[in-house]
Design a protein that fits this description.
The protein is mainly β. It has one helix at residues 23-40; strands at residues 53-58, 63-68, 80-82, 91-93, 105-109, 114-116, 127-129, 143-147, 153-158, 176-179, 190-193, 205-207, 216-218, 236-238, 245-251, 267-269, 282-286, 291-295, 303-310, 315-319, 330-334, 340-346, 349-356, 359-360.
């Protein structure tokens, strides 16, 4: 940039001297030199650094050095993409579905459940199972049990007394509906699951089964999870949700309450010469003459009830594997309206655990 204020020298006539430029030529050169100087000179003699800029000068060489003390280059790290290393740079997050880093670790702990596969740091399954108790499995005719505060049977043995129950009732908890409870003589308690009845796999989820012991797994990879939470209407949950890393604790409540009624409402009208249906709990009948029926062998722990609701003649039921016989079959005779009994199949035999007027032979 030229400097303002140029002084112009007026050149007059020639006045030469031997071996030198004429005065005219000298002044002309001087004029040209000043013109060149003014044309190329800069009006700026002070350089002030700003953020990210450093200034240094060398008076000997007349050099001013300007240095970038800020960002000189941008390098893309994990989960980041850039369109250029300098200039106008666009930085894009390629991880966490565009919402930042996802959960990096998920764990489950429990003082009452068996936990395996925890924690998960990338992908996998956490398995929760009820603990097992040694020497408790088996069949019990008249059990006496010890139950801890979590509702688990910790000790069990056979007792001697039978037939002391006068009323059976069921109180449902969350997710259970009960009707027909309590039962004081005979009847059915109906229990309906009003909670989860089936698990279907949605987007990004796979399940090992739709019911029973179900393993739920995620099929989506790439760190798209941003929050993991656990909720339950029947279990105690703490540490939920997890938004980066942590542990969700799931515990059984100290007490499990069941409200309402427990109904076993499967029944049949047993026909003359018929075979009692083992798929239903109760078989009732009205006789119009002397009639007979049969009861086949059951399965371990199965309970079966019989009752006469109308008396037109005796009903004799032949029972396979009768518990009141040393071996083979036995009979039950119903001769009066209201006669009823309850049987349970234990140790490969039908045993009577409740009776009202039925004659066993």
């Amino acid at each position: 940039m030229a400097i303002s204020g140029l002084q112009v020298i007026a050149i007059g006539l020639q006045n030469e001297s031997t071996g030198s430029d004429s005065l005219y030529t000298a002044f002309t050169k001087t004029k040209d030199n000043f013109s060149t100087l003014f044309t190329n000179a800069s009006p700026y003699n002070t350089f002030t650094p700003n953020t990210g800029i450093g200034i240094s000068s060398n008076s000997t060489s007349g050099t001013v050095t300007i240095t970038n003390t800020g960002v000189t280059s941008i390098i893309a790290g994990t989960g980041i993409a850039i369109d250029s290393s300098n200039g106008a740079v666009t930085i894009t997050n390629t991880g966490g579905n565009g919402n930042g880093a996802g959960v990096t670790s998920v764990g489950v702990t429990s003082s009452t459940l068996s936990v395996s596969g925890s924690p998960i740091v990338s992908a996998g399954n956490i398995t929760l199972n009820l603990p097992t108790f040694a020497n408790l499995a088996g069949s019990y005719t008249y059990p006496t049990m010890t139950v801890d505060t979590y509702g688990r049977v910790t000790a069990i043995s056979n007792a001697n007394s039978v037939g002391t129950v006068t009323s059976i009732g069921v109180t449902p908890g969350t997710g259970i509906q009960v009707t027909g409870s309590p039962i004081t003589t005979s009847g059915n308690i109906n229990i309906v699951n009003t909670g989860v009845t089936r698990i279907n796999a949605g987007t990004g989820i796979s399940v090992s089964s739709s019911n029973g012991n179900v393993t739920v797994s995620t099929t989506v990879t790439g760190g798209t999870v941003t929050s993991v939470g656990v909720s339950s209407s029947t279990l105690t949950v703490t540490g939920s949700p997890i938004t980066s890393a942590g542990t969700v604790t799931v515990e059984l409540p100290s007490n499990v309450a069941i409200t309402g009624q427990l109904l076993l409402n499967s029944s049949e009208d047993l026909a003359a010469s018929g075979a009692a249906n083992l798929a239903v709990t109760a078989s009732y009948f009205t006789t119009t003459a002397a009639e007979t029926a049969t009861l086949a062998a059951g399965t371990a722990g199965q309970i079966k009830t019989f009752m006469m609701v109308g008396d037109g003649g005796d009903m004799v039921i032949t029972v396979t594997n009768a518990g009141w016989k040393s071996s083979g079959t036995g009979t039950m005779t119903f001769d009066t309206i209201g006669d009823a009994c309850t049987l349970q199949y234990i140790a490969s035999k039908w045993f009577c655990i409740g009776n009202n007027g039925v004659v066993f032979a």
